[in-house]
Design goal:
Blueprint: H1 15-25, H2 28-33, E1 38-39, E2 50-55, H3 72-78, H4 81-101, E3 108-113, H5 133-148, E4 158-164, E5 177-178, H6 182-198, E6 204-207, E7 211-212, E8 215-216, H7 222-225, E9 236-237, H8 243-249, H9 257-267, H10 280-291, H11 297-313, H12 332-344, E10 347-351, E11 362-366, H13 388-393, E12 398-402, E13 406-412, E14 418-420, H14 426-432, E15 454-456, E16 462-466, E17 472-475, E18 481-484, E19 490-494, E20 506-510, E21 518-522, E22 528-532, E23 535-539, E24 547-554, H15 556-565, E25 569-575, H16 595-607, E26 611-616, H17 624-629, E27 632-636, H18 643-652, H19 686-689, E28 707-716, E29 720-729, E30 735-745, E31 756-765, E32 770-778, E33 784-786, E34 791-793, E35 797-806, E36 809-818, E37 832-833, E38 839-841, E39 843-847, E40 854-858, E41 863-872, E42 877-886, E43 890-896, E44 899-905, E45 910-923, E46 926-934, E47 937-946
Parallel strand pairs: 2-3, 3-4, 4-6, 5-7, 6-9, 11-12, 11-25, 25-26, 26-27
Antiparallel strand pairs: 1-2, 7-8, 10-27, 13-16, 13-24, 14-15, 16-17, 18-19, 20-21, 21-24, 22-23, 28-29, 29-32, 30-31, 30-35, 33-34, 35-36, 37-47, 38-41, 39-40, 40-47, 41-46, 42-45, 42-47, 43-44, 43-46
InterPro entries: Actin-crosslinking, BXL, Cellulose-bd_IV, Fn3-like, Galactose-bd-like_sf, GH, Glyco_hydro_3_C, Glyco_hydro_3_C_sf
Keywords: Hydrolase, Signal
Family: Belongs to the glycosyl hydrolase 3 family.
Length: 957
């Protein structure tokens, strides 16, 4: 007789019963073990090991060959939710296909990244969708729906959103705190996450490394107070790698790891990614915390229940509807989809009529990205690749290529001997060279079977590329990059810069004025190139560094000048390498194009005015001079395996471009806020608030076709505004158009966006045809977070709706009188939270306690001010009570009308040791309140004492 399976394996039972049954069968130690990223098997119950975390940002990453789609910012540039959903579907299928071959592939995918592209210098700009929360949410929801799969019960993969919350800098990312006022939180940062969760296909989130308002994101109270209130579905919170340990070692937020893990678990984190595959450290700390009573069985069960629910939804404990789905990767359909995505991601920034290119034109294709198909840290391994050069050669009969790098010799200053790149021999040569002598695309950094560089009388001419910020790479004549392996020797051994620590980048370090030459410093190790037995080697000691002179054999601009002069059109392909100067762990320092690349387009243009600049990059550049002088500019993110073909098809006119910028392109660094300034409202960031003139506005992108916008109509329903607009293609070719709908309050009572995206759709319109686009805007999207009353509010009054091709190209407008609830003045007599200010100067938000609440302090213990508008003091107050803490002497100043008082504050015993201070303070009626802070003081709340015993009508609101 066959034994009856336990209830948790019965697919006919409700999910909650199955989860509860399995949870009840696990011991405490088995439950604790499940809280690590690598959960071990439970053999007595037939449970397999389970791994949370599989990177799948724009294809399956880190697990070998896979279809590589454009970077996320490039997918954001498509403005096409239907396409993005299809890509998510393809990626989900490849995850399953690879899982069938390799059990290390996880079904809990850590994607997409929904952090808003607030600041274009963020090193991980390539990972986000857009600077706009509406666009980000829509695209992220589409991608997760594709990843989730179409089965109504079981999930093909379980997507986790990254990175909760307000994470937009790599500099000091594990220790810095983002000061996020309530309006920015509710109007900007949270909507990107909530919109994706509302899409119904999100399995959870991953907290970011940084702190928000002085509290680590892995202790975020918003995980429970916001995230888990948005849906009835179970959501898993997975820590970022190493972040649990950071709570103690880097952030010093808790004294012991046991306290930190327990607090994180209670805050809502369910799974800990730390110490790699070795779960013993984290599980041991959790066991100690459990034994000490820092967490209890309910805390553990809550997290394990969520993890088990995810595993059930993935079909682990019963019939798996995806098991026989015949998943595959690199299918012809996926190849076509990657090509379609690359084409749709191309943005035409400027065109004076030179594009599309004449089919008979002789082209000079120049620049460091002309013959490259770059990957990034979250890419899979390419099975196939295209470059702009190869794709253009397929379309044009005459194409000349010049990389534009400087050809140099590295000469030892002391004796004139030069660096020589030895030829690989034997089997090593076979690995380096393919059958036809082409560089093997599988060549990786770190090889030690190739001969190190040496010195000889003649040396080898190498190509020098300057990527900006004085970061250099060198390439041997056969295309191999100079790289440093673990043994410290320098070899020509890498096909591309790459790796978590890039081993192919160097910097020239000048000597003093009396010495001729420079030191060559290896950026990855920080050491200096020296001469050792066996060849050139990186030495840690500067005293051992060799002094080199750079002898220029030919400047790259000279070769570009020759090629440009003989061509009909020059296409300069410039941009970044995603592993250099802007990537995870490294923010950019400037919007400027690298100096060497700027020199290339200027040289090309001086020889041939018919010069086109194509930027292939992970982020925006400030190129106002190029925009002013060149007849055409384009941008695309690194487009994955088909990026070169996508760009070439647009240049050749095989398709009309319709990509749109997912973020503002600024004209200069001076337009940018501080990297750590997260107050998009107060410092006027992104297209929502920016008051300057951008180089290219949010949503910008040109076409080879032309479109007219007609008949914008608006219909109000009880809970929405419904808009329709007709768009006509007035040109002689079919083309896509991206219709964008914006809205704004005409007479806002508080600072509101200049315009905000409310809807968009990309659609193909046939030549001469008209299409009507419909948009439904929920009335709530017209609102804002009312800090004075602690609620979301839609003010009554006039709202303007706009339809156009970008935020800077509005074609039609209409006004609507919308209903709403008037706010009224701020009822301060019931109390005032310091964080609910309307404006601030020189302050930052800090944690009130380690678990919840906010206070405000002057930055760096200096001086700052808070402004609260329309404060209703009723018929008068006669005193104020301040809730403060202080680590040293300081003061708080209150000013309203003619009354101003200063309250000295002494040290209270620590930042979390709050006391109440009484002071006399007189004010009446509705007026502005200013609160000054000085010294190491934290202000949490203000309360006011009525002048009479008669309560204010607003006192009980």
């Amino acid at each position: 007789m066959t034994a009856k399976p336990p209830p948790f394996r019965d697919p006919n039972l409700p999910l909650t019963e199955r989860v509860a049954d399995l949870l009840g069968r696990l011991t405490v130690d088995e439950r604790l073990a499940m809280l690590h990223q690598f959960a071990p098997p439970v053999e007595r119950l037939g449970l397999a090991a389970f791994r949370t975390g599989q990177e799948a940002l724009h294809g399956v990453a880190w697990m070998g060959p896979a279809t590589v789609f454009p970077q996320a910012v490039g997918l954001g540039a498509t403005w096409n939710t239907a396409l993005v959903r299809r890509i998510g579907d393809a990626v989900g299928a490849e995850v399953r296909a690879m899982r069938e071959r390799d059990p290390r592939v996880g079904l809990n995918v850590w994607a997409p990244v929904v952090n808003l592209l607030r600041h274009p210098l963020w090193g991980r700009n390539e990972e986000g969708w857009s600077e706009d929360p509406h666009a980000t949410a829509a695209l992220a929801a589409a991608y997760t729906r594709g990843l989730r799969g179409s089965d109504s019960v079981h999930w093909r993969t379980a997507p986790v959103l990254k990175h909760w919350l307000a994470h937009n800098n790599e500099t000091d990312r594990a220790t810095c705190s983002s000061s996020v006022r309530p309006r920015v939180l509710y109007e900007y940062d949270l909507p990107a996450f909530r919109g994706a969760v509302d899409g119904g296909a999100v399995a959870g989130v991953m907290p970011a490394y940084n702190l928000v308002n002085g509290r680590p994101n892995h202790l975020s109270p918003y995980l429970e107070s916001e995230l888990r209130t948005w849906t009835e579905d179970s959501l898993v919170v997975c820590s970022d790698a190493g972040a649990p340990t950071n709570l103690v070692d880097a952030e010093h937020y808790y004294d012991t790891h046991e306290e930190a893990l327990a607090a994180s678990l209670r805050a809502g984190v369910d799974n800990f990614t730390d110490h790699g595959e070795d779960s013993s450290v984290i599980v041991g700390r959790l066991r100690t915390a459990y034994d000490k009573g820092l967490l209890d069985e309910a805390d553990v069960d809550r997290a394990v229940r969520r993890l088990l629910t995810m595993r059930f939804l993935l079909g682990e404990f019963g019939p798996d509807p995806y098991a026989d789905a015949g998943h595959a990767f690199d299918t012809p359909a996926h190849q076509r989809l990657a090509a379609e995505a690359a084409e749709q991601a191309v943005v035409l920034l400027k065109n004076d009529g030179i594009l599309p290119l004449n089919p008979s034109a002789k082209l000079a294709v120049v620049g460091p990205l002309a013959d490259e198909c770059k990957l990034d840290w979250y890419s899979g391994t390419l099975i196939r690749r295209s470059t702009p050069l190869t794709a253009l050669r397929e379309r044009f009969a005459e194409v000349v290529h010049v990389e534009g790098s400087d050809t140099v010799r590295l000469v030892r200053a002391s004796d004139g001997l030069a660096v020589h790149v030895p030829q690989a021999a034997g089997e090593a040569a076979d690995l380096v060279r393919g059958a036809e002598g082409a560089l093997d695309p599988a060549l990786l950094t770190g090889r030690t079977d190739l001969p190190p560089l040496v010195l000889d009388a003649q040396g080898t001419e190498v190509a020098l590329l300057d990527w900006g910020g004085d970061v250099l790479t060198f390439k041997a004549p056969d295309g191999r990059y100079l790289s440093v392996a673990e043994d410290g020797f320098v070899r020509a051994s890498a096909d591309q810069p790459g790796g978590w620590v890039v081993q192919e980048t160097f910097r020239l370090e000048p000597l003093n004025d009396e010495q001729d030459g420079q030191l060559l410093r290896h950026i990855g190790t920080g050491g200096y190139v020296s001469v050792a037995t066996g060849g050139l080697k990186v030495a840690a000691d500067r005293a051992e560094a060799e002094i080199f002179r750079i002898e220029y054999v030919e400047r790259g601009t000279e070769a570009v000048l020759r090629a440009a002069a003989e061509a009909d059109v020059v296409v300069v392909v410039a941009g970044n390498d995603p592993h250099i100067n802007g990537r995870e762990t490294e923010d950019r320092s400037t919007l400027a194009l690298p100096r060497q690349q700027g020199a290339l387009w200027r040289a090309a243009h001086s020889a041939n005015p018919r010069t086109v600049l194509a930027l292939v990059s992970s982020y925006p550049y400030a190129v106002p001079q190029a925009d002013a002088e060149l007849p055409a500019l384009l941008w695309t993110a690194h487009g994955g395996q088909a990026g070169g073909t996508g760009l070439a098809r647009v240049l050749a006119g095989e398709i009309s471009p319709a990509g749109r910028l997912p973020q503002t392109w600024y004209a200069a660094d001076s337009d940018l806020p501080g990297l750590f300034d997260y107050d998009v409202i107060g410092s006027r960031q992104t297209y929502l608030y920016f008051e300057g003139t951008p180089l290219y506005p949010f949503g910008h992108g040109l076409s080879y076709s032309s479109f007219t916008y007609e008949d914008l109509t608006v219909l109000q329903t009880q809970d929405a505004v419904v808009l329709a607009v007709t768009v006509a293609n007035t040109a002689g070719r079919d083309a896509d158009e991206v219709v964008q709908i914006y809205g704004k309050a005409v007479h806002p009572r508080v600072l509101r966006p200049r315009r905000a995206l409310l809807g968009f759709e990309r659609r193909r319109i046939a030549a001469g045809a008209r299409e009507t686009f419909h948009f439904r805007v929920p009335r709530a999207e017209l609102g804002y977070w009312d800090v004075a009353h602690g609620t979301w509010r839609v003010d009554p009054g006039l709202y303007e709706f706009e339809a156009g091709a970008s935020s800077g190209d509005i074609r039609l407008r209409c006004l609507v009188e919308a209903e709403g609830e008037p706010a009224g003045p701020r009822p301060v007599r019931r109390g005032l939270c310091a964080v609910d200010y309307d404006a601030q100067y020189g302050t930052c938000i800090v944690d009130r306690t380690k678990t919840a609440g906010d206070s405000v302090a002057a930055e760096g213990g200096g001086r700052g001010e808070l402004v609260f508008g329309d404060c209703d003091f009723g018929d008068g107050v006669r005193g104020a009570v301040l809730t403060v803490s202080a680590t040293g002497p300081g003061e708080v100043t209150l000013a309203a009308g003619a009354c101003e008082v200063t309250v000295p504050v002494s040290a209270t015993g620590g930042p979390y040791a709050y006391i109440s201070l009484d002071t006399s303070f007189e004010a009446e009626g509705v007026r502005e309140l200013k609160v000054g802070l000085a010294g190491p003081v934290r202000l949490a709340e203000l309360a006011f004492t009525p002048a009479s015993s008669t309560p204010s009508p607003l006192a009980d609101e």
